[in-house]
Amino acid sequence: MTYLYVQEITDKKVGKNLNEPEVAIQVLRTIQTIAEATEPVDGDQVKQWLGLLRDNEILAQKWKTSAHGIEIYPSGKRSEDRLGIVVNNGVVTVVNAWISEH
Fold first, then answer.
1. Three-state SS string across 50-70, please?
2. In whole angstroms, what is the distance from residue 38 CA to residue 21 CA?
């Protein structure tokens, strides 16, 4: 059984919240495609997803304040755009899109 993909934010919210929404929406479509083609590992699913994202040339890192969160840089680290996903129990949930303040 593959991952379940859940997008808690709308494409419209992504468009309103980010500087380069088209790029971010394409990254979300890629994440959905990966989820629908990938079976969850029994171990560390965040580590699995960091590898999957890297393999698909999507820049990301573990979210330091969340045990299951991943922060994604859809337009690269020089851009302030960010996406947040949570990976847990075979579910990939897109939880936020925001502009970084640093």
1. HHHHHHCCCEEEECCCCCCEE
2. 25
